[in-house]
Amino acid sequence: GDSVTQTEGLVTLTEGLPVMLNCTYQTIYSNPFLFWYVQHLNESPRLLLKSFTDNKRTEHQGFHATLHKSSSSFHLQKSSAQLSDSALYYCAPSMNYGSSGNKLIFGIGTLLSVKP
Amino acid sequence: GGIITQTPKFLIGQEGQKLTLKCQQNFNHDTMYWYRQDSGKGLRLIYYSITENDLQKGDLSEGYDASREKKSSFSLTVTSAQKNEMAVFLCASSRTGGAREQYFGPGTRLTVL
To answer: N or C: more exposed end of chain B, with fewer CB within 10 A?
Structure first.
C-alpha cells in the first residue's frame, strides 16, 4: 500500500546549524502531491510546504524542499535553524483514490528540537 | 479563508461511555476527515467523508462511528471509551480537486477515567 518514511524520532540541533529532514514515499500513483506539515506544541498541524512539480524547489518561511519523483523523495531543508523551529514535522503525500476521494498519508513524524 | 471549529475542546469520559465529538468548517470543502493523534504514533485516519452523507473508513475505524449530517459538519462517536485512554482527535477538511491540502481544527483532547 501507499506509505511514507521520514527521518525517525528526534532530531536535535544547535541554533544556526542547517536542518535536513528526510522524506521518501511509496505509491503506485505517478503524480502525487507532496506536503510538509508543522505542528508546534499544543497546536494543530498547519501546512508548511507543498509541491506537485518534479525537480522544482518550493520555499516558505525559510524552509525549502524539492520533489524528486525519480527517487520518490521530498526532503525538508533550512539553512539555519531557529529556536522557534522546534516542532513536529510531517511529510505527507496526497493520493487520489477515485470514488473513495483523497487522503494524505501520514507517518509518525519527525520531532525537531533546536537548542541554543 | 475559513475556519474549522471542534467541540468540545476537552472531553472527559468514563470507561464504556459513548462520546460524541463535533466538527464544523466554513471553507465549503467537500471532504472532511477525523484523525487520532497519540504521542509517538503520528496521525491516524479514523473516518473521512467526500460529500454529505458519505462515509469512508480509515485505518483506525474500529470502535468509532461517524456521521456527515451536512456539508459543513462531521461528527465522530467513540462507541465505548476505553479506560485510561488519552488522545487528541483532529478534524480536517480539504477541497476535492487541486492541491487538496488539508486544514486542521484545534482538536478535542479526550481523557477516559
So the answer is: N
